[in-house]
């Protein structure tokens, strides 16, 4: 901590040189008692209070997490990857998520053990940690190696790709009531990669559907529906034409459906599904499909809610492995310019947290993101705004750092606000400061949404 | 690409096997039709929809054929788009597409998605063209096809088939009749007074047909 290195005076000097909003963010980021006390004392100095005692202990503790830290792998990726990964790390730390990140990068040479640019160590890391977050990776153009995504999928046996698609309040598209999950079988089907030329000018591509893979993904789909309180699972197919392949897929889905009588099961032909999605997406709840249809439908649904820049995604593997990823590209044209939209990676991180059952923090970060976008004041270029990545992240940090733990739920609105923005507080401080002053001191990122949450307006 | 017309079910191994075939002959044929259609109907752009990043050989062959044909039509812009991106773009910005040429499976999905955006199965015309014959029918196959209840209640939308028959007239080289029919249908829809249930109105099939006849000049 700074405290151990600097004296109290020097700490204050450091804090005074950065704007107060940053000092609060700094305080909660490190969530150490000394820092919040320093921030509180600083605040008192601003207001000229003569009280010198501070009781930040219990308050500071409330911002710290006391659970054992979980190690998770992070692949920042290429292009805009490192910037948005930085965003994610900051938001997670502010929210007190007990995760230690193990970062791995794609190397410049092919690792012979994996036949790709991903090293054996990175794959081992995911296998060990069972959970990871991946940014966009560009597959280098060339021959003789597998694509990076394919390598991850095959090596980690990631069999299901889960993408929740819901309309974001505040970001208007033609469809407001989308609330569906697409679960796509990720290992076989049309993408088995088995193609050959029969004679010149005739190419054959094999589509393989196995009972094992279909059962696996159907099981996951129904399990997901049950644990997330979803009511209906729809299997998407073209079994009227592809009787043997999609027929097998449907048979497996029906078998699993029998085990979950409380969930409605239906089968929808893919062309019907496309039409219904485009006319009335509210008709769907959970969709489960083989590989090719899943690819197309999940991107179609992403388009319904605003594009790949806002879509989270999580790949589920055997033994409970979960690799959340941002599905957009690496956008090399805006890399390094602080213009990227971190929403997709952040929402994927939230999916990862829910998988880890850290629901309180997941909810906190999720609300922060939704509120920031709903507010509309800070939006990156792809959503029609002009904020930078760092501005957008700071707005989310502010929204997420003022989530009050349940121990503070009995505080009055003003106490909550002062606590949130000033760190530690004394009753003297609460009496002397007005809400406007507090908000003003907290910096420009306080907003009506925030004040409304605290019941101050 | 043929719809997996050769399938095997190896029940012992619980495996379903499907084969997708793409031939240069068929790909060239459809590409030629697409560009010729664009040329004759004054269309500016032809987009090939594919998944060649994954199905390198199969869709690669399709794309190769399209590119070869594209060279012969320098006045028409040609571009390529991957099918999942295509669906996303269709949903977000359908106006960027003009003529789209696709293999069999993707074409089914893209046609139905586009139909949904344009108003549904009830309004989209279509036709099947061969070397010796042509059959015209509704463009999108999803939804209310074959539902007796709709026929009984007289709620079926005749617009799609009327527009398909206009396409047939055009194919038979009767452009003036085709134009008259199309204009009448479009006027009836744009007026909004006679619409069947799928377009949000209350009229019966017969009422719509009568309105179209009335508008025929």
Automatic annotation (TrEMBL), chain A:
Key words, A-Z: Transit peptide
Signal sequence extent: none
Every Isopropylmalate dehydrogenase-like domain range: 71-396
InterPro entries xref list: IsoCit/isopropylmalate_DH_CS, Isocitrate_DH_NAD, IsoPropMal-DH-like_dom, Ribokinase-like
Gene3D superfamilies, per database record: 3.40.1190.20, Isopropylmalate Dehydrogenase
UniProt family annotation: Belongs to the isocitrate and isopropylmalate dehydrogenases family.
PANTHER family: CYTOKININ RIBOSIDE 5'-MONOPHOSPHATE PHOSPHORIBOHYDROLASE (PTHR11835:SF71), DECARBOXYLATING DEHYDROGENASES-ISOCITRATE, ISOPROPYLMALATE, TARTRATE (PTHR11835)
Protein name listed in UniProt: Isopropylmalate dehydrogenase-like domain-containing protein
Organism: Brassica napus
TrEMBL record, chain B:
Pfam families: Iso_dh (PF00180)
Xref: SMART domains: Iso_dh
Residue ranges occupied by any Isopropylmalate dehydrogenase-like domain in the UniProt entry: 3-212
Similarity comment: family membership: Belongs to the isocitrate and isopropylmalate dehydrogenases family.
Protein name from the UniProt record: Isopropylmalate dehydrogenase-like domain-containing protein
